[in-house]
């Protein structure tokens, strides 16, 4: 019984915290990265863990009720992707309708419009945070049951419970969100919960057909996601199409999305969006470049500063630029003999190197002999670098997260300045 309770504590903690980490990733894909909502999400989850434990202590629920808790948790976990996508789409639909109606009345000022749009966006946050709270609450019911089992060591149960959270963090970071589709990750964790429920049902000889509920949801999940690529693409169609009207400057005459190809790297989700006559790259749901007009700004970023320097064999450093488009413009200058590039995401760099469309767009620049690429953090590189450069070109994604925002900070550009020659 001692080892059974300990292993059970480890597994249940793993499942609970896996749900939490996967929900954070799900939120990141839908609304982008953000320190505030991530902090609040963790706080809500942990606080409802405590609330669940408190409620369990008052009610003194029996051991075999753990079976019912696992049934509920597995069902909630299986439904997370569908519920979150549904809530965001409903919220976006209401927001769009309200936005159009508000703009039709001239007496509404911009502050009123902003307040009303924020109100409707709250719908998504209420659903997502509420779902997280419910999962946290039922996860909190588990620990008091395990600690009330006779002849067990409380310190062992607690230790394995904490280790389970660590295991969940490792798996979420290096397996679930890297090698698997997010929906399949939820599926695996839910299956573990179902398996635990089955073991408990057999061990305590519980006569109940409730286990058929998550099992049915499991097969429904498989059926729905048999064409998971198409379902995800449908959702992304709605989001990208909404952005097209806003980003006419970037994506010209593109109202019909033909196909979406998605690739997950260690650092970001790459979406390659095919339109009628062009394609665009989105990173973590944020616009990166469009094949129609990317040359307009990549050429400007390279040729204008080089025309000012007018130096034979200038020392050039490129920070970012994993798509190879800045490199394409640099190698057009014959007086440049060496280009040093610092890129964080090696998988994105290799993706740009091997993808036929991007490789054609960057003229196979990432295979050029002049290029030397190091895969590390640009911020840390500038801190330790001792060399000076005539030209430093920065090509990063938009600062939609804390990790990216630091690359737009005063400290970062002070480091850039320190790494330039006097005439750089």
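-> sequence recovered:
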């Amino acid at each position: 019984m001692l080892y059974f309770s300990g292993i059970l504590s480890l597994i249940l903690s793993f499942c609970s915290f896996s749900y939490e980490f996967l929900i954070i990733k799900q939120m990141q894909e839908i609304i982008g990265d953000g320190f505030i909502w991530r902090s609040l999400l963790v706080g809500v989850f942990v606080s409802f863990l405590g609330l669940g434990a408190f409620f369990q202590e008052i009610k003194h629920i029996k051991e075999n009720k753990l079976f019912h808790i696992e049934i509920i948790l597995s069902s909630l976990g299986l439904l997370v992707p569908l519920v979150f996508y549904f809530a965001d789409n409903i919220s976006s639909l209401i927001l769009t309708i309200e936005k159009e109606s508000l703009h039709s009345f001239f007496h509404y000022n911009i502050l009123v419009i902003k307040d009303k749009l924020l109100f409707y966006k709250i719908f998504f946050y209420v659903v997502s945070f509420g779902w997280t709270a419910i999962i946290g609450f039922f996860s909190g019911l588990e620990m008091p049951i395990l600690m009330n089992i006779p002849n067990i060591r409380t310190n062992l149960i607690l230790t394995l419970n904490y280790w389970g959270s660590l295991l969940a963090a490792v798996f979420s970071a290096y397996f679930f969100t890297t090698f698997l589709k997010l929906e399949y990750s939820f599926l695996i964790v839910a299956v573990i919960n179902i398996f635990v429920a089955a073991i408990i049902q057999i061990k305590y000889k519980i006569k109940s057909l409730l286990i058929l509920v998550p099992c049915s949801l499991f097969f429904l999940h498989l059926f729905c996601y048999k064409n998971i690529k198409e379902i995800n693409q449908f959702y992304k169609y709605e989001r990208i199409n909404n952005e097209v009207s806003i980003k006419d400057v970037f994506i010209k005459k593109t109202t019909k999305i033909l196909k979406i190809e998605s690739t997950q790297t260690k650092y970001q989700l790459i979406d390659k969006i095919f339109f009628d006559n062009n394609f665009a790259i989105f990173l973590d749901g944020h616009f990166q470049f469009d094949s129609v007009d990317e040359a307009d700004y990549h050429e400007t970023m390279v040729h204008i500063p080089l025309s000012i320097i007018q130096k034979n064999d200038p020392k050039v450093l490129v920070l970012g630029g994993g798509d190879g488009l800045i490199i394409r413009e640099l190698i057009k200058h014959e007086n440049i003999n060496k280009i040093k590039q610092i890129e964080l995401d090696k998988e994105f760099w290799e993706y740009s190197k091997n993808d036929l469309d991007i490789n054609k767009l960057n003229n196979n620049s990432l295979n050029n002999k002049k290029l030397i690429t190091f895969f590390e953090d640009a911020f840390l590189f500038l801190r330790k670098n001792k060399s000076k450069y005539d030209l430093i070109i920065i090509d990063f994604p938009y600062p939609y997260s804390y990790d990216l925002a630091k690359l737009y900070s005063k400290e970062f550009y002070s480091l850039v300045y320190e790494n330039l020659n006097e005439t750089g």
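The beta strands are 259-264, 269-274, 279-283, 286-290, 316-320, 339-342, 371-374, 391-395.
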